[in-house]
Every structure is written in C-alpha cells, then in structure tokens.
C-alpha cells in the first residue's frame, strides 16, 4: 500500500488550522499541526515530511524566519507560504528565501488542495539520477547535489533545479511561462492561477548562474516566447 503524503501545517489561527487539517485528512494526507513558528521549525527539522504549509504571520517566530531556517538544513522540502501579506516585497521575500509557492489569504480551500497536490507531483525522485548540466560559458551544474560544480559555487533549491532541468530539456526553443507553471509546478491551465512564482524563480536563477544578472547570457528572455536556457552543444 502506498503511504500517505505527510503534511505539516503551521498556522496559529485555530479555526483555519483545524479546518485545513480536516480537509487534508479527507484528501488522504497524514497531517501534523504546529501553532507557532518555534514548534513549526522543530517539527520541520524533525524530517519525514513531504510538504509544509507555513503561515507567514506567526507568534514567536514569523514564517519568513522559519523558512530561512528550514532552507539552511533542507533545500528540497517543499514549502508553500500562506500569507495575508500580498505586496510584491513580501511575495518576493518569501520566494527568494526558497518557498515553492505562496497562497494569499483568504484562499479557496479547494484550490489550495490542488496546489499542494501539484507541488507533490514533483518529488525528490526527480533528482535520483546524478548528472552534470553544462551551460554556455563552461558553467557546470551538479543536478544531484543542487549546486554549481565548481568549489564555492552557488547552491539551488529543488524547485530551482527543476526549472533549470526542464529548460535544458527544451533548450532548442523558448519555453512559455504558462508551460513552466504546468510542467514544473503541475498547475492545470483551467485553474487560472495568478502567481509570480516563475518570474521570481527566473530572477533567482540568474543571480546564481549569470556573470551579470542584468545582462544574462545563459538564461534569456525571448520577447513573446518565454525563457530559453543556453546549454553547451
């Protein structure tokens, strides 16, 4: 029998916390609950989780701080932020710290379930095969260890590597933003999800793989076409 996916919900509002727990248990998840940032971080660090739903506004330790601490230990564990703070700065901060996505409050519970399921489709099994991704200019990416192969090179989250690998697989053409949402994040077109996740991940990747992120030579924007990764022949 296939085991249930393990979900940690870190939410201080009791009604939201219990409601989400009921919904995800109904959808076949094994759910663990945390009521503040300190408890959430301790449970996340305990491992054995498939995904964390993390509220930003938490007592004791806010969600951004918890996320940063999680990423110090684990760059692969998927984290979705739940936030009433929806300004560009807040969204960028969360995604820059390594969140896989964010969901603004108030949210549709049905859509939240779909988005969690979509993130989980991209599992750690995707990283099972060790390989080097060779980009233009001689830059080599270690896709298994999530880092630039050179000593002291930049490190990547699992989601960032998923984006790079998908772009590399389709390097012969520009990849539209909507295609990345569908193929990397697993979001169906009919959901009509408004998210800046792709754009912010592209910006983060450029800071890690470009000599000058403002004038990229490896990860290009093709006007009207999407993004194209320049790989070595």
If you had to describe this structure to a student in words, what would you say it looks like?
There is one protein chain. The protein is α/β, with parallel strands linked by helices and 233 residues long. It has two domains: 6-121, Rossmann fold, CATH 3.40.50; 125-229, Arc Repressor Mutant, subunit A. Helix content is 37%, strand content 17%. It is built from eight helices and ten strands. It has helices spanning 14-26, 37-45, 63-73, 88-96, 109-121, 158-169, 177-183, 197-209; strands spanning 6-10, 30-34, 51-55, 79-83, 101-104, 132-134, 140-142, 147-148, 219-222, 226-229. It has a five-stranded parallel sheet, with helices on both faces. A three-stranded antiparallel sheet has the order 6-7-8, with no helix packed on it. Helix 2 packs parallel to helix 3 (63-73) and helix 6 crosses helix 8. The model has no long low-confidence stretch (mean pLDDT 88).
Decide which structural class fits the backbone.
alpha/beta
* Shape annotation: globular
**Mean pLDDT figure:** 88
* CATH architecture verdict of the largest domain: 3-Layer(aba) Sandwich
The residue fraction in helices comes out at 25-40%
Topology, number of strands:
10
Q: What is the end-to-end distance? A: 44 Å
Stretches with pLDDT under 50, minimum 5 residues: none
CATH fourth-tier homologous superfamily of the largest domain:
Response regulator
CATH first level of the largest domain: Alpha Beta
- The radius of gyration computed from the alpha-carbon positions, rounded to a whole number of angstroms, is 18 Å
User: Within the largest sheet, what's the order of strands?
Assistant: 2-1-3-4-5
Approximately what portion of the residues adopt beta-strand conformation?
15-25%
Instruction: Return the CATH topology of the largest domain.
Output: Rossmann fold
Mind summarizing the main beta sheet?
A: 5 strands, parallel
């Amino acid at each position: 029998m296939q085991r249930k996916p393990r979900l940690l919900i870190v939410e201080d509002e009791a009604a939201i916390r219990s409601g989400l727990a009921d919904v995800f248990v109904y959808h076949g998840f094994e759910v663990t609950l945390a009521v503040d940032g300190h408890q959430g971080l301790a449970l996340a660090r305990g491992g054995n989780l498939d995904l964390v739903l993390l509220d930003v506004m938490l007592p004791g330790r806010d969600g951004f701080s918890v996320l940063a601490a999680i990423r110090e230990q684990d760059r692969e564990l998927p984290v979705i932020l739940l936030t009433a703070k929806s300004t560009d700065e807040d969204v960028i901060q969360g995604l820059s710290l390594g969140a896989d996505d964010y969901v603004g409050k108030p949210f549709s519970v049905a859509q939240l379930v779909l988005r969690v399921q979509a993130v989980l489709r991209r599992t750690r099994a995707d990283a099972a095969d060790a390989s080097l991704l060779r980009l233009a200019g001689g830059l080599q990416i270690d896709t298994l260890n999530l880092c630039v192969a050179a000593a002291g090179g930049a490190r990547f989250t699992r989601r960032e590597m998923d984006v790079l690998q998908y772009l590399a697989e389709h390097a012969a053409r520009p990849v539209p933003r909507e295609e990345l949402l569908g193929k990397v994040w697993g979001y169906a077109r009919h959901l009509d999800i408004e998210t800046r996740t792709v754009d912010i991940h592209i910006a983060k990747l450029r800071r890690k793989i470009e000599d000058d992120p403002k004038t990229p030579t490896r990860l290009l924007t093709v006007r009207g076409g999407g993004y194209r990764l320049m790989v070595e022949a």
